[in-house]
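Dear Dr. K.,

Following up on our conversation at the group meeting, I've run the structure prediction for Peptidase M3A/M3B catalytic domain from Arabidopsis suecica. I'm pasting the input sequence below exactly as I used it, so you can double-check it against your construct before we proceed with anything downstream. Let me know if the numbering doesn't match what you have in your notebook.
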Amino acid sequence: MWKLTRRLQPRINSTRWLIRNFQSGEAGDTTGLYGFDHLKTAKGFQRFVADAIERSGELVSYISGMPSSQEIIKAMDEISDTVCCVVDSAELCRQTHPDREFVDEANKAAIEMNDYLHHLNTNHTLYAAVKKAELDSDLLTKEASRTAHHLRMDFERGGIHLDPEKLDKVNNLTTNIFQLCREFSENIADDPGHVDIFPASRIPRHLHHLVNPTYRSTSGGSRGSTRSAHKSKQKGFRINTDPRTLSSILQWTSDEEVRKMVYIQGNSVPHANHGVLEKLITARHELSQMMGCNSYADFMVEPNLAKSPKVVTSFLQELSKTVKPKADEEFIAIRDFKREKCGNPSAELEPWDETYYTSMMKSSVNDVDTAVVASYFPLPQCIEGLKVLVESLFGATFHTVPLAPGESWHPDVLKMSLHHPDEGDLGYLYLDLYSRKDKYPGCASFAIRGGRKISETEYQLPVLALVCNFSRARDSSVVKLNHSEVEVLFHEFGHALHSLLSRTDYQHFSGTRVALDLAEMPSNLFEYYAWDYRLLKRFARHHSTGETIPEKLVNSLQGARNMFAATEMQRQVFYALIDQMLFGEQPETARDVSHLVAELKRQHTSWNHVEGTHWHIRFSHLLNYGAGYYSYLYAKCFASTIWQSICEEDPLSLNTGTLLREKFFKHGGAKDPAELLTDLAGKEIISVHGEGIIPATTYLLNELRL
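The predicted structure tokens came back this morning:
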């Protein structure tokens, strides 16, 4: 199916639709949400949609006249750019905007544009024009030729080459899959589950900001009194078992019964997703069959480096075998530590124990106090760290620019410009970093506008938003990040830089629009900077004294980092295998998905499966990364090789940054992914395996001492 891409300007009716409707947000100038004039009010989404459809219709008419192949590709890119600006803006709005009216209108816009995309994806005139352009590849630039090829493939992956009856079924299935994915996500948000814990003293005080007080009536009577029992209220806490709260409770609560209760509840909801997931598996399998594939995994993996689920599964199983001995050792060490701490030599280690005891072991062995660590990472200083990083690597400045009236969606939002002294502004990044009610619950980079070449003298700058959920403690006005949150911030900033530094002719390949199993490499690479003292000492300052973070403390953090590397690797392999198995070839008779997940856990991890839990029903990566979760492990391998062979010796030098930018970032997806990797890090970064490509694992396994 046609990718959601943005636009370029053909030589017709030179109405600068996007330029006219996007303002850079000069201070004092009134504009709309994200700088789009349309979005001064929530109802503006209706006009945004209507104008995008009108402009796209003009471009479709132009393409139907079969202009030159170069003009066809430009016009196709403009159509997708025009449509994608609306879709991306609507997605960011519905995930982050505090005004319900804006969210509702954004939802309507997303649905309407999704319907219009089906119309475009089944337009045979556009398909014929793209095929013509692909045949004229000798008349095109390399990037234009690659764009033509990918557009043709996207059309065919949408089923346009099928007969009308089959195409209608494919479109219905695609719509159904879209709706099921949305339902799955909404169920997670609407039903996080909860546990009531009494008395309140069972919950550590520093976690009280994550829970809500609740009360129950208790009966009691005066000692020696014959009067009827009197009632009193006992205070407890209601714990919502959303992933973030669940993680904190499991890490910090010494009461094993509390940990068990929240673990079981948090891994058993939302119940409605059992049925939704079954329907999603069936619909995706039926779609893949219509497209001539054996499975949805075949359909999804084929365009990527791996090429085949067999290649993926072989890679995962080999990793599983490699890490198992070390993971078993780690399990025994954690179990023995628990037995020592609880004074029970026969105590068994359970899944709800893992986070609690591994955190304790890391702290005790490496003398790491997480509260002390967090005191050196106030959020404003972490943003300074991002500034130091881009200036050191790329000679660019990352600075705050004023928001125009109407441009922002919340007072917490900052707007940053990435500016190069010779090249000018490279792009804009909104930062929405604080948690709040009804906001997207995780951390992610959201596209708003892709970069592309408009003319020989004009470039459409990328615009995106980095969204996180860092929380303010109730007893402090300063938001301090624990180190895992610092790592997440740098991870997402890696995605943002991929978009900001990309300089493709067509937004079809802008930034992160690369093969799925390459897309996570930059984010994983930039995680390394969150651990490197050479950068940390330049921004990590104590929130009250201003003291630079001690090198000894960073060394302790690094010592704790890979203490349970095999256990974590097992977990990621397990997740990826679940994804492959659920969307792989389907048995003739219905299978029990929960039983399959339990068996995979027993085979590929050292941990018990807790009967009655169904962790997979809120594994949201099954939606966006269906049959593609393995890409995280590919990315870890690529990033480790690049870090050790290119960055580690001098990670903050302009030479290192220039190499990363010139060999990788600036190309987006405009070059073959294997070529990008080998140009940057040499041929040893990948190897051919059967019909596909797998990453070299040597650097990563050595790094993790596996």
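Two things stood out to me. Residues 524 and 672 are 20 Å apart (CA to CA). Residues 1-20, 221-229 have pLDDT under 50 and may be disordered.

Best regards,
J.T.
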